[in-house]
Design brief:
The structure holds 2 protein chains of 2 kinds.
Chain A: E1 4-6, E2 11-14, E3 19-25, E4 32-38, E5 44-50, E6 55-57, E7 60-65, E8 70-75, E9 84-91, E10 97-99, E11 103-108
Parallel strand pairs in A: 2-11
Antiparallel strand pairs in A: 1-3, 3-8, 4-5, 4-9, 6-7, 7-8, 9-10, 9-11
Chain B: E1 5-7, E2 10-13, E3 19-24, E4 31-37, E5 44-50, E6 53-57, E7 65-68, E8 75-79, E9 88-95, E10 105-106, E11 110-114
Parallel strand pairs in B: 2-11
Antiparallel strand pairs in B: 1-3, 3-8, 4-5, 4-9, 5-6, 7-8, 9-10, 9-11
The chains are: A mainly beta, B mainly beta.
């Protein structure tokens, strides 16, 4: 079993739709969780950290479920510019960041 | 504010040649990481520095790979006797590591093509 698993997609959604991604992790000692956005042939950019209480930033909401060991990302009112790969990242120590393979999102006009 | 920078952005080399990449982290960040990313995969951890000390190396990092961070500022990653399998994007990231600030910020990467 991979340490961090994501559905690779692609998720094809119309503009304005709401879309959600899940990411599961295997290490129960994981401490910090993040979502990154990566555009084609570019570097990952931090989208948001994921806190135990859940957090929201505009149209984006992230949730953490420690009991079931998954994190989620919800995007409301999808824009064409949201088309990208979304990487789930789990930190289980000072240097140990494990990246998922990413979920591709395509927002269609 | 300057983010993480990497140089060169692209490198094409012939098999068997040595290459060196440079990373300049965000100035107040004491933690620096190197990753390798291939198409369709997430970044894979290669090595980690805290200040000038290299504290961890992945098993992915064969003896052809070496990294340094003299004086705890910029870092270099050298690949000796390159192989076609080394073709990938090499990403550098830095973090401040204070308290619970584990957020990493990435540079634009160096895309290596070995012919």
């Amino acid at each position: 079993r991979k340490e961090v698993e994501q559905d690779p997609g692609p998720f094809n959604v119309p503009e304005g739709a709401t879309v959600a991604f899940n990411c599961t992790y295997s290490n129960s000692a994981s401490q910090s969780f993040f979502w990154y956005r990566q555009d084609c042939r570019k570097e990952p950019k931090l989208l948001m950290s994921v806190y135990s209480s859940g957090n929201e930033d505009g149209r984006f909401t992230a949730q953490l479920n420690r009991a079931s060991q998954y994190i989620s990302l919800l995007i409301r009112d999808s824009k064409l510019s949201d088309s990208a790969t979304y990487l789930c990242v789990v930190n289980a120590g000072t240097y140990k960041y494990i990246f998922g393979t990413g979920t591709r999102l395509k927002v269609l006009a | 504010d300057t983010g993480v920078s990497q140089d060169p952005r692209h490198k094409i080399t012939k098999r068997g040649q040595n290459v060196t990449f440079r990373c300049d982290p965000i100035s107040e960040h004491n933690r620096l990481y190197w990753y390798r990313q291939t198409l369709g995969q997430g970044p894979e951890f290669l090595t980690y520095f805290q200040n000038e000390a290299q504290l961890e190396k992945s098993r992915l990092l064969s003896d052809r790979f070496s990294a340094e961070r003299p004086k705890g500022s910029f870092s270099t990653l050298e690949i000796q006797r390159t192989e076609q399998g080394d073709s990938a994007m090499y990403l550098c990231a830095s973090s401040i590591g204070a308290g619970h600030s584990y957020e990493q910020y990435f540079g634009p990467g160096t895309r290596l093509t070995v012919t």
